[in-house]
């Protein structure tokens, strides 16, 4: 099961619209999809309320709050169907207001960041994708989502506060790398885009420069039918399948399916505000300095998503004439010059 967290601490940048309609789009393509609403505001659950339980399968009332609570107290988890059917192939675990109080309980635990990931394992879920709609903060629920996911999708609306959210998130991913070798591979998505505006064109160029290929070439345009669908309690395909919103989310689902099935990814980060340029080189490219392996800078963080075949690789960062071992990766082995190469295990 491929777990994708939809995350940005900036409020209102399109996380829920993306989580709901990407889930629906992936399900339409024949994937079995589970959406988990991790936001105490329960917007994802609300925006699907009119299709919940509309299939022949039985509706049930388990919320993510119940499940996390049981998991925290080591209580027996429910057996059988715990996910509420939305439409063909598409299921939801809704949120409930009590989720906020769970945060306090999680914070007191030693395994505070791993509770969601162990819950997902314990439930033995049989899905192709699990999409996590995160709340607008980088609190303990979001950290649990990041810990549990293999990919993160970060929607940005065309405003500079969204980019601040991205900088904070990159810092969090660097921090997580201290505890966990495989942090989620981040992909960024421009959302609520009005292509006619000059500001939006300039903003898009600026973001492309800062994110390079991490920014998806699919954008979600502003489309009133997306807002109406959410207000009406349906995903965009149920509400208006011939809308621009439905077209954009079909394209996004295609893209995400390709990125998560045709490639294996290794996200790398380097923190350093005074560096002028950074490349990564290793045995995957004969230790050459190559443009396609140049890291992009946003705030203090340089980053790249390496696409590699399954295997074990060694690498270093190259900045100016200096070769650096990755300071955020504990895995390393001796090189032939008496120093260390960083190690990547891709699978
Ligand atoms: N592409 C779009 N076209 C039109 N309206 C949109 C679009 N994307 C989002 N919206 C509207 O913008 C508002 C914010 O979107 P959304 O709820 O998805 O953001 P969010 O990041 O989940 O917010 P929060 O941080 O509060 O969870 C909603 O009213 C939504 O209907
Ligand atoms: Mg939301």
The named CATH superfamily of the largest domain: P-loop containing nucleotide triphosphate hydrolases
**What oligomeric state do these chains adopt?**
single chain
Shape: globular
| Element-by-element helix/strand order | EHEHHEEHHEHEHEHEHHHEEEEEEEE
Strand content: 25-35%
Give the neighbour order of strands across the main sheet: 3-4-2-5-1-6-7-8
The value of Rg in angstroms is 20 Å
Compute the number of strand runs: 16
Name the average pLDDT: 92
How far from one another are the termini? 14 Å
Query: How many helices?
Result: 11
How can the largest sheet be summarized?
Answer: 8 strands, mixed
Q: Assign the structural class, choosing from mainly alpha, mainly beta, alpha/beta, alpha+beta, or little secondary structure.
A: alpha/beta
Percent of residues in helical segments? 25-40%
